[in-house]
Amino acid sequence: MRLRLEQARLVRAPCEPVFEAVLDQESLPAFTRGHGLVPAVAYVEIVGSDRLEVGVVRKVRFTRFGGYDEVITLLDRGPDWRLGYRVVGGFSFPLSPFARGGEGEYAVDSVPEGCRLTWTASVDLRSPLAWPPGWL
Fold first, then answer.
1. Measured between alpha carbons, how far is 32 from 104 in angstroms, rounded to an integer?
2. How far apart are CA 26 and CA 20, in angstroms?
3. Residue 25, SS3?
């Protein structure tokens, strides 16, 4: 069973610098907000490389607890401005009993007011019983 999550926000700035901020591990936490049981991102760290590119692994840690490692699956620096990832190795506790993996994408799209930053994710739940807590 999959749980789909999505958050979007308007940023009154051009797409390129917003997307570059999403790619920057020090700036990304400023763009993330928690929702229900999903906490905000505290920090992101690139593992084994000095630059972000497809195939690179990043450690993502949450503000309240745990996190996961992700492999970058898509990196389009324009004109589509997309960053895709897949969770590798599962989530750490306390999310691990509920979710085993997932994938997501950050998208930056041009709008008249600036740009829209959208985060979407699909989380593979271990049981249908994990579905209700995912909406809290």
1. 13
2. 11
3. coil
Question: How far is residue 133's CA from residue 136's CA, in Å, rounded to a whole number?
Answer: 5
Query: Which pLDDT tens digit goes with each residue over 62-94?
Result: 887 788 999 999 999 988 999 999 999 888 877
Q: pLDDT tens digits for 29-57?
A: 776 777 666 678 888 899 989 889 999 99
Using DSSP bridges, classify how beta strands 82-91 and 67-76 pair: parallel, antiparallel or unpaired: antiparallel
Close Cβ partners of 32 (under 8 Å, ≥ 6 residues apart): 40, 41, 119
Q: Specify the 3-state DSSP secondary structure of 4.
A: strand
Write the single-letter amino acid at 28. L
Distance, CA of 111 to CA of 91 (rounded, Å): 34
Residue 78's beta-bridge partner residues? none
pTM metric for this prediction:
0.86
Nearest-5° angle of CA 47, CA 49, CA 53?
100
One-character DSSP codes across 49-74: -SS--TT-EEEEEESSS-EEEEEEEE
C-alpha closest to that of 84 among 56, 106, 69: 106
Q: Show the tokens assigned to 38.
A: 């999903």
